[in-house]
Amino acid sequence: MGDDTVPKEDYRSYDERYLRIRIKSHMGDKIHIKLPMDFVKKMIKNNTIDFFNGEDDIIDSDKLLNLLIQAFEYNLVGEIAYMERNNGDIIRLIID
């Protein structure tokens, strides 16, 4: 095939996509979460996503969830958010 072929993931319907949450802590821990888009939408609607709620969190979880909702509404694909904390923790939200 030529260079103009489209990879399989580029023509999946939006509802077949996933939200990936990747966390790499400064202690070396790596967390990879892969959730189907429909499930994430239901979790947001039911206010059950609390990955980013913590007493010492500098992340505004409400704004982050609103960012995800907007990404869903505009059918965005790719890295939606990249956060690096001063302690070295890295959090990435990716739709693919």
TrEMBL record:
<protein>
    <submittedName>
        <fullName>Uncharacterized protein</fullName>
    </submittedName>
</protein>
